[in-house]
Amino acid sequence: MTNTTFTPAPDDSLRLFLVSQSQFDAWKQGLDETASHWIAEHGFKGQAGRTVLVPDASGRPCFAAVGMGTDTDQRRSRFRLGGARATLPKRHFHLGPLFADVDLSNEALGWLLAGYKYTTYAGGAAPDLAHLSCPDGVDCARLEKIAHGECLTRDLINTPANDMGPPELEAAALQLAERFGAKIMAGDVTRVTLDSSPFTVHLGKEALETKALI
């Protein structure tokens, strides 16, 4: 199972800021004295991959920030937000104002993909990670579909070959087609003539068991 959906923000949801090094000073100017001191003590300046959880004056978690790095860092790597997901506390977050020039849809997709875990042989438990509400201006339904497709593909790839031969791949394809109402043909390749369709998949050419054509 995976943790690849956005969830509505509860009352105790914490703000999450995306902060680049070039906009760090502008972001810090809007913080109170307690938060500013805390961030300085932890050496957070928007460095790529760094995260910081900031408390309020009473010591309770108030907000968090993820460093997006320099402009060069952002060009060289994507999914900074996704990379930070495992380092954040297992709380619910919602994005605050951006202090980084980022592709928010791309970063939101990275967050979802970071929720993937191969659990076929581990009881199917989803990873216990931080949660995020759908960022404003992002087509989250579309991103969730992309993430679900990616996770299905990873599950098929990560399953050992002794448990994912031609019959199992065929069953997975039939199940997916049924779910979305798609037309599909599958059968023993020895009884089906190969055609030139780019959508034809010949499974198990070297397999000892029954070969399949989808």
What's a concise summary of this model?
By secondary structure, the chain is of the alpha/beta class.
Question: What this model shows, in words?
Answer:
- The chain has seven helices and eight strands; from the N terminus they run βααββααβαβααβββ.
- The protein has helices spanning 24-28, 33-41, 71-76, 80-84, 104-113, 140-158, 166-180; strands spanning 14-20, 51-55, 61-69, 92-95, 131-132, 187-188, 202-203, 212-213.
- It has a five-stranded mixed beta sheet. The chain has a three-stranded antiparallel beta sheet with strand order 6-8-7, with helices on one face.
- The relative contact order is 0.14.
List the helices and strands and how they pair.
Layout: E1 14-20, H1 24-28, H2 33-41, E2 51-55, E3 61-69, H3 71-76, H4 80-84, E4 92-95, H5 104-113, E5 131-132, H6 140-158, H7 166-180, E6 187-188, E7 202-203, E8 212-213
Parallel strand pairs: 1-3, 1-4, 4-5
Antiparallel strand pairs: 2-3, 6-8, 7-8
Helix pairs in contact: 5-6
Instruction: Note the overall shape.
Output: elongated
Judged by helices, strands and strand pairing, the structural class is alpha/beta
Kindly report how far apart the N and C termini lie.
26 Å
Residue share in helix: 25-40%
Number of strands: 8
The percent range for strand residues is: 15-25%
Low-confidence stretches: none
Radius of gyration: 22 Å
- Provide the spatial order of strands within the biggest beta sheet: 2-3-1-4-5
Mean pLDDT, rounded to whole units?
A: 87
List the helices and strands in order.
EHHEEHHEHEHHEEE
What tags apply to this protein structure?
7 helices; 5-stranded mixed β-sheet; elongated; 214 residues; alpha/beta; 3-stranded antiparallel β-sheet
